[in-house]
Amino acid sequence: MKQHSWIEELPAANVVCETDGTIIEMNSQAARDFEKDGGEKLLGKNVLDCHPEPARSKLKDILTNQKTNVYTIEKAGVKRLIYQAPWYMGGQYAGLVEISFRIPTEIPRFRR
């Protein structure tokens, strides 16, 4: 699959996997963020093998049932928004994309 150039400059880690969890794409930010886990060598590996329980079971459920999962984490003083969602090709479910954005510790919330 051809990766679009804009994804390289998006200030977020972007990982794409197939329906079985095989990682098929990652941008350079994701390769840097997951460097200690193998970085680009994660391509072709299964995303489920990168997660301990109970996250592994949750991710498997997300893959199987084409769910969206959104949450925030804080690790080593860096807060991130994690957005996991199904992606489609030609209208057919093709797998899961995970986008991880660094976010400020405090975020304003607006109701409109």
SSE arrangement:
Layout: H1 6-9, E1 12-18, E2 23-26, H2 28-33, H3 55-65, E3 69-75, E4 78-89, E5 92-103
Antiparallel strand pairs: 1-2, 1-5, 3-4, 4-5
How many beta-strand runs? 5
Radius of gyration: 14 Å
Mean pLDDT: 92
Helix content, binned percent? 10-25%
| Tertiary shape | globular
How would a textbook summarize the main sheet? 5 strands, antiparallel
Straight-line N-to-C gap: 39 Å
Secondary-structure element series: HEEHHEEE
Proportion of beta-strand residues: 35-45%
Tell me the strand order in the biggest sheet. Answer: 2-1-5-4-3
Spans of 5+ residues with little confidence (pLDDT < 50)? Answer: none
Outline:
The chain has helices at 6-9, 28-33, 55-65; strands spanning 12-18, 23-26, 69-75, 78-89, 92-103. It has 112 residues and is of the alpha+beta class. The chain is globular, with a radius of gyration of 14 Å.
Description:
This protein is α+β, with helices and mostly antiparallel strands. 19% of the residues lie in helices and 38% in strands. It has helices spanning 6-9, 28-33, 55-65; strands spanning 12-18, 23-26, 69-75, 78-89, 92-103. A hairpin with a 2-residue loop joins strand 4 (78-89) and strand 5 (92-103). The longest helix has 11 residues, at 55-65. The N and C termini lie far apart (39 Å). The relative contact order is 0.19. The model has no long low-confidence stretch (mean pLDDT 92).
